[in-house]
Structures are given as structure tokens and as C-alpha cells.
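Field reference: sequence -> structure
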Amino acid sequence: MTAADRSRLFAASLSALVLAAGMVGGAALAQTLPSGEPATEVAPQDQLPPAVILAPEQSPDEAAPGDTAPDEGVPDDAEAAPTVTLAEEPAEPAIPPVWAPVPTDAEGRSAYGLYLAGKLALMQGQGGAGADLLARAQALTPEQPRVKAQAFTSALLSGDLDQAARIAPAPGEAPAVMVEGGRLVRIVQTFAHGDARAADAALAREPIASPHARAGLMVSPWIAAAAGDWDRALQAPPTAADPLTLAFARLNQAQLLERRRRYDEAEAALKALSDTAVIGALFHRPYGEFLERRGRRDEALAVYRKAIEGGTVDLALVRALARVRDGGRAPAMPTFREGAAEALANAAAQASAERGHEFAAVYLRLSLNLNETPASQLSLGQTLDRAGLSAASRTAYSRVGTEDPVLYATARAQLAAGLQEEGRPEDALAELRRAAEAAPDDQRIALMLAGQLMTVEKNAEALEILNGPLLNREGQTAQVHFLRGAAYEALDRVPEAEAELWAAVQAAPEDADMLNYLGYLWVDRDLRVQQGAEMIQRALTLEPENGNIQDSLGWAQYRQGDYSAAVDSLEQAIDKEPANAEINDHLGDAYWRVGRRREAEWMWKRVLVLDADDTRRAEVERKIEQGLDDGAATGGVSQ
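Structure field:
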């Protein structure tokens, strides 16, 4: 197996593992939502945020995420594209081709120049600078709706909420998605700056409407309570809301009832939420925290244990169990700002689970401005990642501090995954070393570090981690066996590699990558050629569109001397992975064996313009000059 092939394989492992590493805090919400499994694909990087934030398949005046089926119109196998979408153009013309006179600022910079510079900065991933330049252009051209729309959206996504509040479009200037989003930002920012009464009065006059009605519903009671408007704060939530939104609204009401010392009502509401089928897992922790504050620690302990035994994945819940068990102090009731921040974070989690990632990013920005926590900062990074805003997501991850080692390590792991995807494996390795230093007992991080070390061919160091006490223990996973076997194979310790890979396949018999890896090892090293070919065929049945596995099958047929079948299989592999140097090399060999020598030379020459390592390049150059002899087939391990 070549270094490039290992890099692809372990990068895939890294991406899978980092998803598991991200299952902290509010991630349990995404797991439990009845609307389906949240999207995990990362869309194309650093796309320019267009003028209007919309959910998939949503027109400007349609409802917010949650009001319609989240995946409507999106095929199951479609790649998740960024959900920032251009709305219809406003009735007024966009930027005119000629301004007379040309608006300029005090430094002599034209409005159009500022606009273009802002767009360019956004395209280059410089969100803050781009948003500032667009805002300057907007200040010179307040009559231009397109400039204002893009400046507003860019300010939102870059986190300049005060700027967004200042330039938010008024009714009639933009679709409802922007107008109501602007109202939400202005009101929450007014509250954040200490004027709860003005914020509450604005909401009392006109609640936040679709498509941001959910976020408005979540945050309104906390603002009302902060303003002393307890009648509004404790009014019953509307029954027309979707079940999950209604449940979170009842959670807000229960927490505010506790603040009013109406403990019996608060407990009844929290217990009812905790006992709810399917979504009840989301409310075990707030119910347990209430019990802790009431001095009923044994009952709280029972609630936490029941939740964890039921499979709830929530770092905060695990920590709550440890706190009670160890006699720690009960958590304080949330302040009004903290409650409002958590309410917005819950609205963000719902929006993100429904693929409204830009909605979620805005709500999380507002939440962070009220109460910045490592968990919400991490959630913002993950949300921006899902939206395809990679530069902004990296900034968010980098702001997760070391005060919470687990969340810090998770953020560094997320950074590493992005860097690896960008072709920066050494930088990814540096981030994973930081993660492992912060969380030395975290098996997930250790496994990711080992995989990344193998990506950069530090196999001996990877093996030290894989054979260390943290990972080499009873009940170790198939992934640990697999990476250990791959490390042994890279170090040419074949019997040990074979044993570990066999253990991996036994533990995960439906894992196509593991089946392919061991099958190819057997075929290529002439150990168990027939059994290896059968194992590769099983892998291809599991993943018929996987070009690397198709290549392995073709190479198995080649090793067995069935060159015509090998040509057919390898041509199919080339169709699936046309830029894979190893597959091109293998097809060249197969062409040579069936007498198609001109085509063989063409394939080998193609290898030299692809991403081939030095060993393969040297071998291919020899074959171009000398052809193949009549001895054993040549080639390296294919994955």
C-alpha cells in the first residue's frame, strides 16, 4: 500500500472518528430529534455568503426549519450543499452600472470598489474583513437593497451582531427571512446590552414571525422575565408549535417557575418532560439539576443513571452523574441571560438537525453574545462546518479554550479533520497532538492521533499508541485492531498485520474497508489468493461504487492470471477513480498482459502526471522502458 493510499484511508477514518468526538453537550439533541438524523456532510469550502439566508427548498416567505419536512426535495444520496441561498431579486434594480456622482468615503474609496473588495474578501475566507467592507459600501449607498442585504448577511455570519442590528433591512426592503432575522438580532442585542424592558416591549408589540418564529418563541420568556414582565414570561406556550419546540418552550416555563419559587409546578413540568417518549432524554439533565438544587441528590442520581443506561450521549449528563456521585455542589439556576442563551442554542440545534445550518449559526452567534461557553463555541464551529463555511468554522474551533479539556480536545480534532481535507496533514497532526495532550485519557483522540501519524508515515510512533494501555485493552474496537494491523503491514510485519486485520474483520464483518484491506493483503502477498479474492468481492458487494475496492478485485483477478476479467474490473475502477495513480498503473499492467501494449504504455505514462509516490514512479518508468517480463505480477497494496 502506498503512502497516498494510506492517507486516503486514514483520512476517512479521521473524519468518521471526529464525528464521534463531536458528540458532546448539545449533540445529544441532534441524535434524539424525531425529524431524522442530522446531516454530517461538509459542503464546499469558503463559499461567498449570498444575500439571503434560507433553508433548503425554501422560498423567502416560507416557514422556518421545523415547519416543513427537513429533507423534502433532497434525494437521500445527494451531497449536502450549503444552505445559504439567494432569494429573488428585489423589485428595485441592483447595483447600477454607473453612479453619478460616484459615492466615495472620506478616504476616497468608491462604494463599488468597497463592494467588490468585500466580496473578494469573503471569497477568500476573510469573513470579518469582508463584512466590514460591505458595511462601508452599504453606508455610502443606503438606497441599494442588494448591497444592504449582502452586508447584513455577512455581518451575521461573521459574528458582528451590532453591525447586523444597525443595518438590518426594514419591512418592504427585503423578504421576511431577512426582515424577521434582523428584528430578532436587534431585540436580542438590545437585551444583551442591558435594556430588557425595551426588548420585551418590542416583542410584546410584535412577536418574531416566520421563519424565525421558533427562536423568538424560545428567547421571549427569558427577556420578559428579565424585564419583570412575569405574566408574559409564564404564559402557556402556543399549542400550535411542533412537538419538540413545544417541549423546549415548556422547559423554559419550568425553569422560570423555579425562579419564581413555584417549585411544585416546576417539578411537575420537568418530570413530565423527562418522561416523554423519544424526546424525554433531552430533559433528564435539567430535571436532575432541579432535584439537586432541592437537595434530593439520590433522586437526581437515579435520573442521571437511568438516562445514561438508556443510551443518552451527552457529556454534560455524564459530568452531572459524576458530580452527584462525588458530592459536588449543585448547579445554580440559570440567570436570565444564561437561560436566553440556552434557549437560542436549543433553537439552533433544532435548525441544524433540519439542515438549516445558517439559521443555526445566527442563533448560536446570538447565544454566544449572551453567554459564551466552550460547548456553544464548539457547536458554532460544527454548524459553520456543516454550512460549508470552513474559514469561519476554523475560527470558532480555535476559540474553544482550554478550561474544558474535553471540549478543547474535540475542537482541535475537528480542526485536524478540516486541515486533513485541505491536504495539510502535518498541520492536522499538530492539532491532534494538542488534543491528545489536553485529553490524555480520551481513547477517541488517541485513535485519531494514531491514524494521522500513519497518514504521514510515522508508523512506529502510531504503533506505540495503538499498543499502549489506553487502546490495547480488553474489549478494544475493530478500528483499533484495523489501524494496528495496518501499522504492522506498513512496517512489513506481515504475520502480526494479518492477525490484527483478521480480528478487525471478525469484529466488524460488514466493514468494506477492513474486508478490502485484509483481502488485498492476502492477494498481493500471495498468501491466500482465493480467500482474499472472495473477501474483496464481499467488500465490493457492500460498496459497489467504491473504485478502490473495484481495483482490488481487478488486481486479485490479475494475480490469479485471469487478465481479461482483470481488464474489465480495472476499467470499471478507472471510471470510478480516474485520478488514482495506482489504479492507472494496475490497468496498464493488465493491458500489457492481454496484448494491448500501446494502451498499457499510455496508462503508465498517465501515472507519471498523477499523485504517485517515488517508488511507484520509478517502477512505472522502468515498465515504460522495458515492459513487463514473464514473471510474477507487479504492484503495491491497493486500498
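Note: Confidence is low (pLDDT under 50) at residues 18-93, 632-639.
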